[in-house]
Amino acid sequence: MDQLKNSNTINSEVPVVNGKMLYYAFLAGGNRILQHQAEINRINIFPVNDKDTGTNLASTVRWVMDNIKPHKSYKTTVNSIAEEALRGARGNSGVIFAQFLHGLNIETINQPKLTLTEFAESVNKSVPYIYEAIANPVEGTMLTVIREWSEFLYQRKHAIHKFTKVLVESKEVLERSLAETTQKLKVLNKTGFVDAGAKGFVLFLQGIIHFLQHRNIRMLVENYEPVSLIHSEELDHEHITFRYCTEAIIKNLNTSKNNLQKVLSSNGDSVVVAGSEKMCRIHVHTENPAELFYQLKEYGTISYQKVDDMVRQQETITKRKWNIALVSDSTCDLSQELIDSYQVNLVPLNLNFGENHYLDKVTIQPKQFYDLLETSEHFPKTAQVNEQTFTNLYSHLASHYDAIIAIHLTSQFSGTFESSKKAGQRISNEFGKPVYVIDSKNLSGALGLLVLRAAGLIEEEKEASDIVQIIQNEIDRAKIFVSVKNLKYMIRGGRVSKPKGFMAKALGLNPVISMDENGKSLLFGKTFSQRASLNKIFKHIKKISANKKVWNYIILHAHNPELAAKVENEMRDITGKDPVSTVNISPVIGMNAGIGSVAISILYNA
Questions:
Q1: Structural domains for the chain
Q2: For the DhaL domain, which residue ranges apply (predicted)?
Q3: In sequence order, which residues have a C-beta less than 8 Å from that of residue 93 and are 6 or more positions away?
Q4: Which ranges of the chain have pLDDT less than 70?
Q5: How far apart are CA 438 and CA 94, in angstroms?
């Protein structure tokens, strides 16, 4: 910002570009994308007609803009931009754009200032990086526009003192190349649209060119305001081949990027592998992220993951059943059929085995989790969902629903509730729509039952505020009882101290865990076998069910379907009804209860 002290503008024609000029140019280009993201979304047809290319590009550039600082060295600045773009890239278009910046950084000589010749050469050499990153490059997209623009710059690279003039002249090449995408890409022929990703790149450069023509840094900085991500209301129905848009950062890759592309391609489509072996960003559309990431752990350290459910996104935009959105987290244990039927948005908690990062119930399912629990040298650790994740989700939902209700696991176990609450307040203020965030003071099946109850009330078209009041009144009537088979997992996870655990194991004790009224774990009882602990639970349920009517119940198990079936029969005799679900318990819960554990969750009527 020190340049602001001297002048509002920079000399309109200089033979070189330095780091600060690049920094402000990126801000100008990024601003242009942020301002036109709705337009880019509207024309998004390829590779998937999900109307989010503008949002993804906006999210990518905003991440970079929020995380870089001006520096006088061009090489330092382009390196910072490239690294943050790889970290913050979102969607197919965002990852391709990040790969272009990665190539630009690699091919930039280590100098504080660049001439037009040096800049043009670095741009030209960066193009192969993009083509190599994409498993099936398609012409008539962002790729073509970048290539044809770089070829023009390379032809004009010896115009030594005409840096800005050459870039201004390149506008004609950009606009012609963009217009030709309509004919080059068959899927665009019927619509008459240009390619959305290519449009985003052209807008980015138009913003930079406008800045270089006027060089008014003060206006650029003073007029910059964070722009919310915009989610389109327009979406044509189409069959989604692969449900999950999946991205990750893999560090210290121990295989070739070409081989990684083959692995990803065998699991889906829209494959992009950007970055280097040191830090590699992947993008793929796949049907089973958990199976994919179980393979990927062999190829390096998985340090970041993001998975978007494109079916749920499409439902939000074009197939909403009701006008109230329902949100919970991955500790909510319900069958997938119920989650899909009621269009529940589940936000996954983070789960780490050593340095490898996973998303609960998304990139790691019980099948993979319990295998790693037995074979990994690391005991898993959990991390709350961050505020930004909720902000992104709530901004998307608030673009389409009249209200949002979120119900989360007990705040005594995780900061997820607080992250959701802060994001909800921000989005509520921004969109003028209510976002209600509820601490269930429970988890697993008990949380699932409260979510299911809220879903039923939404289906009955109750007012959002009335639903929230009903759920808050019913929290105390949701119960969970967990029969632990083996204490070793609670000892490994630190839930039980080693001395106490040793004594309990020596005595053959099997604890029964429940929750108190404040959402803290409660030792409900101790027995000398799992059968005895279950009998204790059945006896207690019979006692309290004598005076209360069971609304619904769920049977949960940690990889123990045989015992779960027996428990289901017993509960059917006690309650006279079938469970609403019998499910494998969430991995972030099962890590402490341990393999073989069985739980019963009940919600009583008032």
A1: 2-222 (1.25.40.340), 240-319+356-371 (3.30.70.980), 477-604 (3.30.1180.10)
A2: 20-210
A3: 53, 56, 57, 60, 142, 196, 197, 200
A4: 1-14, 50, 160-161, 216-239, 486-510, 524-528
A5: 34
